[in-house]
Structure formats: structure tokens, C-alpha cells
């Protein structure tokens, strides 16, 4: 116990050290070019007027910036504070707070993921329990599984004619395969001895499925659900970049079009943190259903 705690402490210290080194490299890389930009002359009234006509902020245009255009740590800190101070503001279709954009993305992922679970887990049970169904469906699974989820997007947009629902459909497609395959594998791997004991005790098929097979296959099913959630969170960003409208993926693309690298970096960090929290949640669930054999 003490050894595990010591290992965790040392790993935490090493992570903190690596973070400090990364921030120091970032600071040096962006600061080295700042004095050159700081010597830039102030804008003339004509240049200020031209910047306004081009939709740019004259103050930001004339302010000292890094030569590379990459934001400094101070700029990133200011951007993070600005977004976190007003996460729920809504100034129209293209200007929403980061919490609202995340909410749209999580809602799409949640709905598509739930639909996939409703299809994949029962079907995986049937495939795992029946060799006949497994052999019949295996060719379809092997053909459909390698197809990139985004390849379905044009077909979804053509048939569904709604960008938001098409995004949910893409999440459904990318989430269904890991859950289906892991459920079928987990059910098929349940020990024959346990099934024979249940059969000897004349346990009904429904009770056998819920009281013998499901607890035994739960760790493998949760592994598939965890993989599916990771893929779904990866795909939603790309899907929202394509369909536009709302969501964290659209936020990244919109800020790139505005050439706002601090906002793009902030969105990337947010995507990573949310993805980590989702993975931690499924890791906790997986640990809760794992048993010692």
C-alpha cells in the first residue's frame, strides 16, 4: 500500500516537473521574438480605419505580439480567464460560451452513444450466445466495421437532411462496433462450467442471462463501452467541423477562421480535459464491475 502511494506521489511530481518544463519552453519560445514586435510603430489613423473596415481590432493589431504569431503564456492565461468567467453567454449563432458549445457536443455524443448501446449490447448478447447468428452476421460486421464514421456523413446528410441529427448518426455508427464486438466476445467467453451449473439447476434463460452471463461479461462489455466513448469524443469534433452550427468542433473551426490561435488552443485543451474525464468515469465503472477470478 505504501509502495503504491509512493509510486503515485513520484509519478505526480514527475508529471508536474514535465508540465513546468513544457511551460518554460513555451514561454522562452514565444518571448524571444516579443521585443522585435514591441518595437513596431504605432498605427496611423488611416491604418486604424483600415483595420476596422477589415473587421480587426486596431488595439490588438497595434499591440506587441510574438513574431511567430503563437500566443504567449500571458495571452493564454487571459483567454482562459475570459472563457471561464462567462461560460454560458449567448450572443448569437457564431458567438456562444464554451460551456454551451460543450453542452451541444456532449448532448450529441450522449444521444448517439445511448442509441448505439441499446442496439449493440442486446445484439452482442445474441451473437455471443448463438454460434449460428455469429456466423451469419460476421461478414456484415467485418465489412462495415472498418468504414470511417465520417464516410457516412454525406449519406447521412442526404437522407436525414439535418446536420445535427447527422452528427448523432455518425456517433451511433462509430460507437456501435466496439460495444457489439466486446459484448459478443464477453458473452461467448463465459465459463462453460457456470452455464452447466445454471442448466443443471434449471435456471430460466432470462435469469441465466441476467444473473450468470451479464455479471461475468460485464468487465469486457465495459471495456467496449469505454473504447466507444473515446472514439465518439474523437469523432464528434471532426463531425462538427464538417456540419457546422454548434459544438466544440465548430468552435475550433470558427476560431481558426478568425485566426484566433489562443481560442483554438483553449478549445483543444478543453477537448482533452473533457475526454480525460469521460475516460476516468468509464474506468471507475469498469473497476466497479471487475471481479477477482
Automatic annotation (TrEMBL):
Coiled coil: none annotated. The keyword S-adenosyl-L-methionine does not apply. The chain crosses the membrane at residues 111-134, 143-160, 166-190, 231-253, 259-278. Pfam families: BPD_transp_1. Keywords: Cell inner membrane, Cell membrane, Ion transport, Membrane, Transmembrane, Transmembrane helix, Transport. CDD domains: TM_PBP2. InterPro entries: MetI-like (IPR000515), MetI-like_sf (IPR035906), NtrB (IPR005889). It is a multi-pass membrane protein. The keyword Ion transport applies. It is found in: Cell inner membrane; Cell membrane. Residues 102-282 form the ABC transmembrane type-1 domain. Belongs to the binding-protein-dependent transport system permease family. This is Nitrate ABC transporter permease. It comes from Piscinibacter gummiphilus. The gene is ntrB.
